[in-house]
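queue> pop job 88
queue> type: inverse folding (structure -> sequence)
queue> payload:
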């Protein structure tokens, strides 16, 4: 089949080619500027984006898609701002039927047309990035700059990365080929062969509360660009960012001559369990999920008709052996533990420190001095409420508050969490991080995930013991990140060997402006698929290649 060129492919070909180069070079590149400065986006962009966000509040969301006539409104802002956005509701069968009807024309359009349309969607979203950032901020509890970056520009980069990997995989084979084989004294056997990229079917994206766009965009665009219509099921407390995404995606699809039902929003009523119903629907062939281990395991076990991609929970761990920059280490870890109040799936939880202390550029530091140094760095970051809330943001749900209360009953506090009044949002729920001292024998405590601003300083027998705990806990429960601090190359090598063994990404001696819980699109992989914390990686070939199949036809010439 000869693919008909699409004008949107030509419009965005330069961006695609640069992205294709970036995924092979693995250096720094970003298509979307991460600074919300007026010098970058213009003097009026921030105000216009905020006004667009506010226009959604207390209104019916403007989304024309199949539905049952009802609406749902389930969001509660961690900042205490009334949202009350009402979204159109639909039944699973309505969503799946509309998606299935949209599939054939999208499939037949071919990879280039689909890539062009998807890149145009990203461009449209980028034009509305301040609107998107406000929606992420007030539903997730992230501070604005983080919401702009993680929820806006970095999410777009991850989407573009997924599109680039998908295009590379879809075009790995030629569309047509001539085949000729000698046949003795007679004429050779000749055949013409055509290879079709065939999508699996309807895709389901199940969004999360903390990073509604960053965690959803890779799967959404990986499925869409490979020919699969996508049903987007947002978290009930973070619907608006994905509703905005769906709105602009549908606009672009319609403008390009395709059925807008290729992308639909599936908000759920309280207690409806829409995600589970959709995930088990026979027509749903792909499921993407970010969230709890319990539900991710359920999807992997039960959604057997679908290819299931999960990013779940894990025990992110840092091994502290020694350092030639004690102050820098403490500042770096302090920022890591404070950022978004530890409500990142990549935030470190377990800090493994020899009970005999470590060697540093400031001389020997005891176990207590190391823990106190990290605690002091957090204290400095969060001392001024006006400054501190720009790091911590707000607490996303009551489960985090319950864990903060529960952790007061274990171990010995090195740093206690405290409530902070947000200077701009008096009803915001803000808590500073806590660090609790544990013994290496307290495995029942630190071998479970405590999502939120909770970390443990764990006294081990030695660095070798620390590495053994890393292997055991991460091997059993998984992790998305690991870190090590050491001036000894042998220790760094041993830590890298341990990380490879349990399939976790490792960061060494971070003391500056790079943090263990942050990853850069086109260079860093997020998750590995090699331990229980995730069964896939954002983003690699394996993440996209199973979303379609190659089906061939052949004819005699």
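queue> result:
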């Amino acid at each position: 089949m000869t693919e008909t060129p699409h004008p949107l492919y030509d419009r965005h070909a330069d961006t695609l080619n640069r992205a294709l180069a970036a995924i092979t070079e693995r250096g720094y590149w970003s298509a979307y500027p991460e600074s919300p400065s007026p010098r970058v986006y213009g003097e009026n962009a921030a105000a216009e984006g905020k006004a667009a966000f506010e226009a959604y509040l207390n209104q019916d969301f403007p989304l024309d898609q199949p539905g049952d006539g009802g609406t749902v409104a389930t969001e509660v802002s961690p900042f205490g701002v009334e949202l009350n956005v009402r979204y159109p509701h639909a039944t699973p069968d309505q969503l799946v039927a509309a998606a299935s009807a949209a599939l054939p024309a999208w499939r037949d359009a071919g990879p280039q047309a689909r890539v062009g349309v998807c890149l145009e969607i990203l461009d449209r979203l980028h034009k509305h990035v301040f609107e998107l950032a406000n929606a992420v901020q007030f539903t997730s509890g992230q501070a604005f700059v983080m919401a702009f970056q993680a929820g806006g520009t970095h999410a777009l980069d991850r989407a573009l990365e997924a599109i680039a990997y998908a295009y590379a995989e879809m075009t790995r084979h030629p569309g047509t080929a001539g085949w000729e084989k000698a046949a003795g004294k007679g004429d050779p056997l000749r055949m013409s062969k055509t290879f079709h990229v065939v999508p699996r079917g309807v895709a389901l994206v199940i969004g999360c509360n903390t990073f509604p766009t960053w965690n959803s965009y890779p799967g959404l665009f990986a499925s869409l660009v490979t020919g699969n219509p996508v049903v987007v099921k947002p978290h009930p407390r973070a619907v608006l960012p994905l509703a905005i995404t769906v709105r602009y995606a549908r606009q672009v699809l319609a403008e390009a001559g395709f059925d807008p039902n290729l992308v639909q929003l599936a908000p759920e009523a309280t207690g409806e369990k829409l995600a589970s119903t959709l995930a088990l629907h026979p027509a749903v062939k792909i499921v993407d999920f970010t969230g709890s281990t319990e539900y991710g395991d359920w999807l992997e076990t039960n959604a057997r008709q679908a290819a299931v991609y999960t990013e779940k929970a894990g025990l992110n761990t840092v091994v502290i052996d020694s350092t030639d920059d004690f102050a820098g280490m403490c500042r770096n870890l302090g920022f890591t533990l404070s950022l978004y109040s530890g409500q990142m799936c990549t935030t470190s939880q377990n800090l493994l420190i020899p009970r005999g202390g470590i060697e540093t550029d400031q001389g020997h530091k005891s176990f207590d001095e190391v823990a106190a140094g990290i605690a002091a760095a957090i204290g400095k970051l969060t001392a001024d409420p006006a400054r501190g809330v720009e790091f911590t943001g707000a607490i996303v749900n009551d489960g985090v508050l319950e864990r903060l209360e529960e952790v007061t009953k274990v171990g010995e506090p090195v740093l206690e969490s405290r409530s902070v009044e947000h200077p701009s949002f008096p009803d915001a729920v803000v808590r500073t991080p806590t660090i609790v001292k544990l013994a290496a024998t307290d495995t029942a405590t630190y071998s479970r995930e405590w999502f939120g601003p909770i970390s443990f300083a764990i006294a081990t027998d030695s660095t070798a013991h620390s590495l053994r705990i890393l292997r055991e806990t991460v091997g059993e429960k998984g992790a998305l990140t690991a870190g090590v601090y050491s001036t000894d190359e042998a220790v760094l090598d041993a830590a890298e060997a341990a990380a490879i063994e349990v399939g976790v990404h490792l960061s060494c001696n971070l003391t500056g402006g790079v943090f263990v819980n942050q990853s850069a699109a086109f260079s860093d992989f997020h998750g590995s698929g090699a331990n229980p914390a995730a069964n896939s990686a954002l983003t690699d070939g394996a993440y996209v290649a199973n979303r379609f199949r190659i089906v061939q036809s052949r004819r005699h010439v």
